Amino acid sequence: MLGTGIIKGMVETARNFVGSYTDEARLTTSEYPEEKLSPKENARTFPFLVFDTTDSAAGLRCVACQICEKECPPKCIYIEKSKTKKPDYTGKPQLFPAVFDIDISVCMSCQICVEVCPFDAIKMDQAFELSTSDRFGGLLLHKEDLAKPNDYYISIHPSEAREVDERLAAEKVKAEAKAKAEAAGSASEPKPAIAPTTKPAPAQPQTGASATPAPATT
Ligand code: SF4
Ligand code: SF4
Q1: Domain range for residue 168?
Q2: What are the b/e assignments for 158-173, b being 16+ CB within 10 Å?
Q3: CA of 176 to the centre of ligand 2 (A)
Q4: Does residue 70 have its Cβ closer than 6 Å to ligand 1?
Q5: Could you tell me the pTM of the whole model?
Q6: Confidence (pLDDT) at 48
Q7: Residue 130 domain-assigned?
Q8: What is the CATH classification number for the domain harbouring 85?
Q9: Domain tally for the chain?
Q10: pLDDT (tens digit, 9 = 90+) per residue, 42-62?
Q11: What is the pLDDT of residues 129-170, one digit of tens each?
Q12: How far apart are CA 207 and CA 43, in angstroms?
């Protein structure tokens, strides 16, 4: 019958309204901003850059590979590579972003940048109180605004962060074992033998008939 869905919706609303006086489960609203509910673990707003240790520059995981910049559908990521390198979490020298900007007025929170990042360097934030009267500058986030410690990532996405930490730790152990094996291999390699420097033997004077100079013919 036409309008059945609307009636069902109204009935549900009425049940929640009346029930909210006696049953807390039916309290579907909160007094924001005085009362703030914790977001669900999978809730997401805009991306941020993860750094390890306490140094946001040295510990930044991003290696400026620019994959996220290329894959971002609305092209709201802008990266400039560094001219020098810094060690990554395995100690390998890597580039880093000299500039990393995200225009969150354009970002559509699709999470594609997170999915394509091979370094677990960019993750989705849950911060949402970002309104500003500065439409352009205020919503263009720079590297310094985007960089957040791994502890923050763990606090908002604990399950996901635990899995990432375990994977990175395993990769680090593997890289260290490989480096150790390579170092041991090069140390045990036989050294090339040094060839004795012998002088070539002087040419011996020839003897016999063949040694006799042929008579000059006239
Ligand atoms: S979440 Fe989507 S739109 Fe936003 S920066 Fe990442 S890829 Fe681009
Ligand atoms: S965030 Fe990831 S995909 Fe984007 S440039 Fe950095 S390392 Fe590459």
Answers
A1: 44-182
A2: eebbeebeeebeeeee
A3: 23
A4: no
A5: 0.77
A6: 98
A7: yes
A8: 3.30.70.3270
A9: 1
A10: 999 999 999 999 999 999 999
A11: 999 999 888 999 999 999 999 999 999 999 999 999 999 999
A12: 101
